[in-house]
């Protein structure tokens, strides 16, 4: 069976795209790959986000160095294309893995040029270094496992200069992938490692063809082209500007440099301009956390970070002077139903939790026109009330009211009491 497979998969140059191994070439569509071996038992994996095929694999699909390798193909953004070949072989002893990986490297060297060790991870427990003749030695284990693997002339100038391909195999057959040569879009690495299953050693060999042409570090999208499905709440803006006493009457605009999560539509890693006062930068980032955008038009499988500049206005008008009126009888949660966007249990005060202190916090809040809450009053019932101070802020962050009360009246402007209990499990 193996001989027939070898004859059917000659190492020939493909007409289009850079040839890799067998009939495979860079950028080959899944349909063409499957057509080369219709009976290979191909399995496509679809993206859970977009439904489009993002991975193609088949067992024992590629013959190489006298063995059949499992194949996995993963395309990426900007024409990136990764091909992985993997094979497991039972061996009598760990040293028997060396001839397997040497034969694999030798066959690939005929196409991609000499392979050289690429590991410079000297802080790793399995670090190895090159000695004259292209040998790779790990001094920590060479006494008990004196395996030395040659992968061609060591043309690395200390491990930083590589030809078309790259490979490294340490004395225990682990391999590391070094930096991609700046002039080469295709990186080829080969290596192996030993594994024990039920006491029987396994030699696991692998090849990775990683084609990654130049692409931007980040894509850019304009804030104005996106539709927010969630905006910063009145409560969030109030919390953000509350500590800022130096805002001009017209407010200030902070332009944050953020990344947009393509799948969730949330802003990440927002940074204000360097000259921004620290307190204003913190306030702007806190406001930005309230945004969520409609990202249905974006490719959720694109792994290139997406940059977006987000203008955040910090205005004195965002500050709300909210005080419970004297003699207030707030509504109960039954009269003014609330929903939670998070788990309050995550915010059990750490000191109280460490000391096994329980508590109950009664928070009085005013419902705003966008159903967010501003909570100026809290009462703590606990043996150590100071440990539960500030829970009202968490209530503001996590709870939302409905637009109407159970009576059918509008909820905006009404007051509600929220009871939060912190109890030890069990």
Automatic annotation (TrEMBL):
It comes from the Bacteria. The keyword Signal applies. This is TonB C-terminal domain-containing protein. Residues 1-15 form the signal peptide. It comes from Caulobacter mirabilis. Keywords: Signal.
């Amino acid at each position: 069976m193996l001989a027939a497979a070898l004859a059917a998969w000659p190492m020939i140059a493909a007409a289009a795209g850079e040839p890799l191994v067998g009939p495979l070439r860079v950028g080959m569509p899944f349909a063409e790959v499957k057509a080369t071996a219709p009976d290979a038992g191909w399995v496509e994996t679809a993206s859970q986000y977009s439904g489009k095929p993002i991975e193609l694999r088949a067992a024992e699909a590629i013959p190489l160095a006298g063995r059949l390798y499992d194949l996995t193909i993963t395309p990426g953004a900007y024409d990136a294309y990764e091909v992985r070949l993997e094979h497991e072989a039972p061996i009598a002893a760990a040293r028997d893995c060396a001839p397997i990986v040497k034969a694999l490297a030798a066959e690939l060297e005929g196409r991609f040029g000499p392979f050289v060790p690429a590991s410079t991870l000297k802080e790793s427990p399995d670090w190895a270094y090159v000695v004259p003749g292209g040998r790779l030695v790990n001094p920590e284990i060479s006494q008990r496992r004196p395996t030395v693997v040659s992968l061609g002339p060591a043309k690395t100038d200390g491990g930083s200069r590589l030809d078309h391909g790259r490979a490294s195999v340490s004395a225990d057959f682990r391999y590391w992938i070094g930096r991609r040569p700046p002039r080469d879009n295709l990186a080829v690495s080969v290596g192996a490692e030993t594994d024990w299953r039920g006491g029987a050693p396994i030699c696991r060999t692998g090849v990775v063809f990683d084609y990654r042409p130049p692409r931007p570090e980040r894509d850019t999208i304009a804030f104005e082209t996106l539709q927010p499905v969630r905006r910063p709440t009145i409560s969030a803006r109030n919390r953000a500007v509350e500590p800022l006493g130096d805002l001009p009457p017209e407010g200030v605009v902070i332009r944050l440099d953020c990344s947009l999560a393509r799948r969730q539509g949330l802003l990440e890693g927002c940074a204000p301009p360097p000259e921004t006062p620290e307190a204003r930068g913190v306030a702007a980032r806190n406001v930005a956390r309230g945004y969520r955008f409609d990202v249905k038009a974006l490719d959720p499988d694109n792994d290139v970070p997406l940059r977006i500049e987000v203008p955040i206005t910090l205005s004195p008008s965002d500050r709300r002077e909210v005080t419970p009126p004297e003699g207030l009888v707030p509504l109960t949660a039954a009269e003014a139903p609330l929903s939670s966007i998070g788990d309050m249990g995550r915010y059990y005060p750490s000191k109280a939790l460490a000391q096994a202190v329980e508590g109950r916090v009664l928070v009085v809040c005013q419902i705003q026109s966008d159903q967010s809450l501003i909570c100026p009053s809290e009462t703590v019932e606990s043996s150590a009330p100071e440990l539960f101070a500030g829970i009202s802020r968490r209530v503001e962050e996590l709870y939302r009211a409905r637009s109407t009360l159970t009576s059918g009246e509008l909820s905006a402007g009404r007051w509600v009491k929220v009871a939060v209990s912190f109890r030890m499990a069990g």
